[in-house]
């Protein structure tokens, strides 16, 4: 095959272009900080990078769910603390009222305070978190209790037992974030009111009657409600502890994913600089060689 000067020049130009492309790629890697810019750069690494980014995004959503779950449980715990404090105060007043030395005027004062405390319990039962009622099960837009302490007719109270709201905090992990009204206030008793409210109404009636022996019977009712609230506080506290463990694990997972993503797609600066220097030397050498290949012709002198 006859080799012509034109063929040599075309091949030299193609080789110089390839050298420039390699040098341009390394310069782009250094400038951007990543070594993958398009799927054709490395299809396997691109696929792996996309999977890692998906995992990071999913992990971030789990972290947001954990934060929301933690906030709901904290609000629930705060409400239980208030209910417990109110019940403890009602118990103190009940013990005082069961003392036979109390005058009718004293009993009226105790009854007035118990009525106020009952109203506060009703407000606690209708507590909300970001506009959602925390004890109303799935019916978060509806308050649990009416002003007199009876159950809101818009809520199917007996079905609340199964209306547990769960947040997904892992690929196969969920956590229950709510307590239902029936768990906190008990089953429905007289006049459509839950046990806790009904027990306090009984106490108020006994205080009105002024019979200290009957009043003393309410102490056990109050103790039963306090025990239930303390049990629920323990349950919520355990869930909060679990959430904290999950949150720490999610944060560790994010660190690991971020490190893996960096190892997969980030530019190795030392290696890139080495290649840049090498490609630059090769390009300069190709320019020098090219100057020898391109021989002057008669056309160059016809000016």
UniProtKB/TrEMBL annotation:
Keywords: Cell projection, Cilium, Flagellum. It comes from the Bacteria. The keyword RNA-binding does not apply. One of its GO terms (molecular function) is structural molecule activity. GO terms for cellular component: bacterial-type flagellum hook. Residues 4-140 form the Flagellin N-terminal domain. The lineage of its organism: Bacteria, Bacillati, Bacillota, Clostridia, Peptostreptococcales. GO terms for biological process: bacterial-type flagellum-dependent cell motility. It comes from Alkalithermobacter thermoalcaliphilus JW-YL-7 = DSM 7308. Coiled coil: none annotated. The keyword Secreted does not apply. This is Flagellar hook-associated protein 3.
